[in-house]
Each structure stands twice: as C-alpha cells, then as structure tokens.
Amino acid sequence: MSATLATHTEAPAPALAPRERETLRHIAAGRTYLQTARHMGLSTHTVDAYLRRIRAKLNITNTAELTRVAISLGM
C-alpha cells in the first residue's frame, strides 16, 4: 500500500448524510447515475449533487477513488 493510500484510509471520514451514504453505496456497487437515481427515486442531477458533496467532503476527485473509499468504509 502506498503512503498516500495509507494516509487517506487512516484519516477519519467526515460525516456523510444518510442519502449521501446510500448514493455512495450504489456508485461503489457499480451502478450508473441513472440506475442510482431510479433506485433512490431521484433525478440524475440530484445524484450528481450528492456525489459532488461527497467528493468535496472527502477531498476526492474521481469515481475510482470514491469507490475505493467506500469499500474501505465497509460500504
């Protein structure tokens, strides 16, 4: 594991709202924005907004890293 990965996973995760956590679980499971939106009863714009907030809270820039963090959090 690289130092960057170790540092990132050791830091405590900021609190995510329940809908943010649910959105993150769907994306980490490989679902598209559209699939996630339909499952959660939201628009794709809302899913995108949740993911932008999650990325900002976790200081993440891409979906691959977002998925890695979700897995490390047990999602």
From TrEMBL:
<feature type="region of interest" description="Disordered">
    <location>
        <begin position="1"/>
        <end position="21"/>
    </location>
</feature>
<keyword id="KW-0805">Transcription regulation</keyword>
<dbReference type="Pfam" id="PF00196">
    <property type="entry name" value="GerE"/>
</dbReference>
<dbReference type="InterPro" id="IPR016032">
    <property type="entry name" value="Sig_transdc_resp-reg_C-effctor"/>
</dbReference>
<feature type="domain" description="HTH luxR-type">
    <location>
        <begin position="9"/>
        <end position="74"/>
    </location>
</feature>
<keyword id="KW-0804">Transcription</keyword>
<keyword id="KW-0238">DNA-binding</keyword>
<dbReference type="InterPro" id="IPR000792">
    <property type="entry name" value="Tscrpt_reg_LuxR_C"/>
</dbReference>
<protein>
    <recommendedName>
        <fullName>HTH luxR-type domain-containing protein</fullName>
    </recommendedName>
</protein>
<dbReference type="InterPro" id="IPR036388">
    <property type="entry name" value="WH-like_DNA-bd_sf"/>
</dbReference>
